[in-house]
Amino acid sequence: MIFGKKKNKDSSNIAMMDSKVNQNYVEEKVTKIKDEDVEVVMENEEGISEKLSNASPLRKYAELGKIMFAMLKDVKKGNYPNVPWFTIASIVVALLYVFNPFDLVPDFIPGIGYIDDLAVLSISMGWIETDLHKYLDWRLAENEKA
């Protein structure tokens, strides 16, 4: 019982350190996103969507991925212009990270291969959740007009 408690305490410390490392990693990548990176995401929409749908740990993000792609398309077309660059960059970083098979923890490792993908997606979602809700509200309003 003593060993179990110590193990849990150490695990939570590792998880907190890992979360901070991932958050710093994501922040650094978001600040370096360029317009060309948005194009790369758009060109790879099918592959990214497929990975989100087929990797069981990432399935819960499949619908969010669709919303993110729709938002990027509407921004690119000029239909939805008032989006902070930070939001666009966060979406691009999250989706490119998921698409990249050579990330911090390779996806082919059973059981833990998607932990880093989940962390990057979760961190990004935490930052842009409000903007995604605004976008969905806008889409509902647009659909009601049509």
From TrEMBL:
One of its GO terms (cellular component) is endomembrane system. Residues 88-122 form the DUF1232 domain. Keywords: Membrane, Transmembrane, Transmembrane helix. It holds the Pfam family DUF1232. Coiled coil: none annotated. The chain crosses the membrane at residues 83-102. InterPro entries: DUF1232. This is DUF1232 domain-containing protein. It comes from Aequorivita antarctica.
